[in-house]
Amino acid sequence: MKPFLPLLLLISLLSANAQDKWPTQAWPKNSPEKLNLNPDSLAALDRDFAAGKYGNVDGMLIIRHGQIAYEASYSHNYAELYKQEAVEKGGLNATDPTGPYNYFSAWWHPFYHGGKLHTLQSVSKTITSMIIGVAVTRKEFPDLDTPVLSFFDTTAVKNIDARKRRMTIRHLLTMTAGFDWHEDLPYSDPNNSCSQLEASFDWVKFTIDFPMSDEPGKVFNYNSGATVLLAHIFRVATGRDIEEYAVKHLFEPLGINNHFWKRSPYGLVDSEGGVYLEKSDVAKLFYLFLKNGKWEGRQIISTDWVQQSVSPYSKFGPNRGYGYKWWLGAYGNKASEVTWGGNGFGGQFPIIIPEYDMVVVFNAWNVLPGAESRNYNPNFLTQKVLNAVVEYQQKKK
Fold first, then answer.
1. The pLDDT of residue 2
2. Tens-digit pLDDT profile for residues 91-149
3. What's the pLDDT tens digit per position in 34-74?
4. Residues 6+ positions from 368 with CB-CB distance below 8 Å
5. How many CB atoms lie within 10 A of CB 157?
6. Percentage helix, strand, coil for the chain under 3-state DSSP, each rounded to 5
7. For residue 110, cis peptide bond before it (omega within 30 degrees of 0)
8. Max avg pLDDT among 51-55, 91-95, 170-174, 316-320
9. CA end-to-end span of the chain, whole Å?
10. Over the range 265-277, which residues count as b (16 or more CB within 10 Å of their CB) and which as e?
11. What pLDDT, on a 0 to 100 scale, did the predictor assign at position 316?
12. Which among 283, 388, 298 has a CA at the least distance from the CA of 341?
């Protein structure tokens, strides 16, 4: 894996090269050409999406230098597409078939009640990390090395051993909690630990009772339950609901006035996959990180938290890393060429490309087994967007 550019250097590059534009009220728009992008390349990708080449893509948004360069939305009849699956019990429809955890219900997915708010699925984890970053910046959240069990009545927790006692908030943030969790199975498989979590009543108890398999901090193991525990810890530590806190201290300052956030049957915010937003508002959250946590001159999230979040706590695969619920991907030959992004089930991919001062957002709803093989993934989408930059440069020669 090629080294990641030290983040402080990246931040200095961004501060030197980017002109701050604040889309609090609305994103300004400009032509691709004026933003140094080839419109023909973006239009070709638009046509491929519209033709269904990459499955059920719902929308894309390309932002450069704080301005919308290209935006498109696509319509699909999900009630008809997933009509049969919506009434058949399985890993993606394990509870009430009319409820919010039937992933084939067109009333709930991918758009909330048929409106404009699109499910973000596990991008909700990245947003949860952002909210914690706000609380840390405001000095209203515990030290990340605080043991997780200090927020529980340990007499009611199962499978406690020395490893579980050593598990900290930081381990939950970095997917290194050490639980014997199995989310590597397809989500349509009822044996997937996350599918079992969402079919349970008390998600916090379901997760904290899980037995341990590894020493915390040693092994990356993707675990949606870990983010559920963060919502619980947030409520216990701050006395505030994490959604309520987000609205006041994150959403409203950015001009995000419309959202929906699912809750577990027990009432806790679904921090692992429950956020719905319009793609333009998703872009605001990620633009905040591109701008090092600052918005209209106000430091919403500290630069230190941004740096920690997008530093690779774990490295795996040829060019990938993971920070505080941020996916990191190296895409070029230079150490600075690293994307920061979220990754949600069905094809939710907001991506920051710091080197090019870009934020891009893609939404889709490819949820049937095998749909992920359509070559619609963050690496592919990043390259497609950057092709527009390269082709513009070649065109100008």
1. 46
2. 898 888 899 999 999 999 999 999 999 999 999 999 999 999 999 999 999 999 999 99
3. 999 999 999 999 999 999 999 999 999 999 999 999 999 99
4. 85, 188
5. 14
6. 40, 15, 45
7. yes
8. 170-174
9. 33
10. beebbbbbbbbbb
11. 86
12. 283
Q: How many CB atoms lie within 10 A of CB 316?
A: 11
Q: Give the strand pairing for 118-119 and 57-64.
A: unpaired
Closest CA to 196 of 94, 282, 303, 124: 94
CA gap 166, 92 in Å, rounded? 33
d(CA 201, CA 265): 5
Please name the residue that has the structure tokens 């381990």: 171
CA–chain centroid gap for 157, Å, is 29
For residues 329 and 382, is the Cβ–Cβ distance under 8 A? yes
Q: Report CA-CA distances (Å) from 93 to 80, 103, 120, 306.
A: 16, 6, 18, 36
pLDDT at 336: 83
Pick from 324, 368, 342: nearest CA to 93: 368
Place of tokens 């998703």: 282
Under 8 Å CB-to-CB from 176, ≥6 apart: which residues? 216, 217, 218, 219, 220, 221, 313, 314
Query: What six digits make up the tokens of 61?
Result: 């948004």
Name the percent of the chain lying above pLDDT 90: 85
CATH class, range 7-396: alpha beta
Domain ranges of the chain: 7-396
Give the span between the Cα atoms of 97 and 386, in whole angstroms: 41
Q: Answer whether 290's CB lies under 8 Å from 359's CB.
A: yes
Task: Give DSSP secondary structure letters for 20-82.
Answer: P---SS---B--TGGGT--HHHHHHHHHHHHTTTTSSEEEEEEEETTEEEEEEE----HHHHT
pTM for this prediction: 0.94
Convert the pLDDT of each residue in 253-286 to its tens digit.
999 999 999 999 999 999 999 999 999 999 999 9
Q: Per residue in 349-361, pLDDT tens?
A: 999 999 999 999 9
Residue 288 tokens, joined = 């905040």
Residues 6+ apart with CB under 8 A from 60: 45, 46, 49, 70, 71, 72, 279, 360, 361, 362, 363
Q: Which two tokens stand for residue 277?
A: 């937003």
What does each C-alpha distance from 24 to 88, 112, 147, 313, 340 come to in angstroms? 43, 23, 37, 32, 22
